[in-house]
Amino acid sequence: MSQLPDNLPACLNDSKKIEAIRKAYSTLLKIQEAISADIGTTKASRDSRDQKLMHVRILGYLIREGPSLTASEFVAKEVNKIPEGDEDEIDKAGERYFHHYLRIFKKSGGRTPGFSLSTCEAFETRKAIVMEMLSLADKPPEDQKEAKRQALVRDDFQCIVSGEYDSRLVKQNDDLRAAAYRVSPPRVCKTQCAYIIPSSTNKNILDSKDKEHAASFWAILGCFGYTGFPEKMTGKKVHNLDNVMTLGMEIHDSFDQLDMWFEAVKGSPNTYTIKATDTVFLAKCKAAGCKITLTSADPRLPLPNPEYLEIHAACCRVAHLSGAGEYMDKVLEDLEDTRVLSQDGSSARILSFVLQKEVYAYDLITV
């Protein structure tokens, strides 16, 4: 968990609401200092203190690292509407973003299973695979399996970060095997279809509380200046090619665990620098400086949407800097190991983590 820096980044000076941003950030710095002064006499009190610090820092880093200038302005306005010194309301505001923005992108289960590529494997040449898949390109993917196939063709049958070719296709296709062997040693991996905006955000969920949870996420994106949600992800649209990428299993896991993100290079369309919470996650990057430019095999196969990658990247940065990512890792780890909740209150954060998704309906403060 990183303490909020004293000074705001210079890029926020472009905002017409910079004074409001400064006021809100100053408030958060004061509350951070006040909470930090509490040494805590018990483990429970120290855990509570650390959670409050995390929530304050989520708000602060959303102002600093938000996906858009509108996002920074909105969070600042929300902070400024809270009565001065009201730590409880600040805590609740930070907690809402924790549950309805950061948690949305954090994968809590196992890795996405692979899919049969028998349709592709039936062709002996690379060109034959491409031609077959392009014949279907005018029809948007209707499910994850079809999204995977079309993304593979668009991404040249390889992980877009590592450049490793799909191992199953390499075994079946002479052209792809030859391409893999052009690099020594040959680079292959099991690829997966990675969603930028998680597909779980728009499932047909019957439970009204889960609907509120998803609606809160879409509402936050709207307040951050992103229009067209949730319509862009309605039903089968979540499988659209601009929301998926071909990634190797390990890289996909890092992306879903908020340990890796794509940071746009200004002035260079579809060019990104791959960033990570630790350089260990960048070991497989194919390009020097982890700078990649995304290309498509055919204009009918759209590239990943820069806005979606921007939203995901901001989530990763805020989760990492605020300590929320580490906190989620710990709680999920404890959840896997816990069969019975302790009576001494030490399991309170685990119970809260599970229940909050069910009971929180985000009370939006309108812009």
Give structural attributes:
367 residues, mainly alpha, 2 domains, two-stranded parallel sheet, 14 helices, 48% helix, elongated, disordered C terminus, HNH nuclease domain-containing protein
Brief characterization of the structure:
This protein is mainly alpha-helical. It has 14 helices and 7 strands.
Q: What does the model show?
A:
- It comes from Lactarius akahatsu.
- This is HNH nuclease domain-containing protein.
- The protein has two domains: 10-105 and 323-359, no CATH class; 118-313, no CATH class.
- By secondary structure, the chain is mainly alpha-helical.
- A three-stranded antiparallel beta sheet has the order 5-6-7.
- It has helices spanning 18-36, 43-65, 69-80, 87-105, 118-121, 126-134, 144-154, 167-172, 174-180, 208-223, 249-256, 306-322, 324-337, 348-359; strands at 165-166, 188-189, 191-195, 244-248, 260-264, 271-276, 291-293.
- It has 14 helices and seven strands.
- The chain is elongated.
- Mean pLDDT is 84; it is low at 110-122, 204-208 and 357-367.
State the share of residues found in helices, binned by percent.
Answer: 40-55%
Using the alpha-carbon principal axes, give the shape: elongated
Order of helices and strands: HHHHHHHEHHEEHEHEEEHHH
Oligomer: single chain
Radius of gyration: 22 Å
Mean pLDDT across the residues is: 84
Count of runs of 4 or more consecutive helical residues: 14
Head-to-tail CA distance between termini: 30 Å
State the secondary-structure class. mainly alpha
Q: Give the percentage of residues in beta strands.
A: 5-15%
Question: Which sheet architecture does the biggest sheet show?
Answer: 3 strands, antiparallel
| Major beta sheet, strand line-up | 5-6-7
Q: Which blocks of ≥5 consecutive residues have pLDDT under 50? A: 110-122, 204-208, 357-367
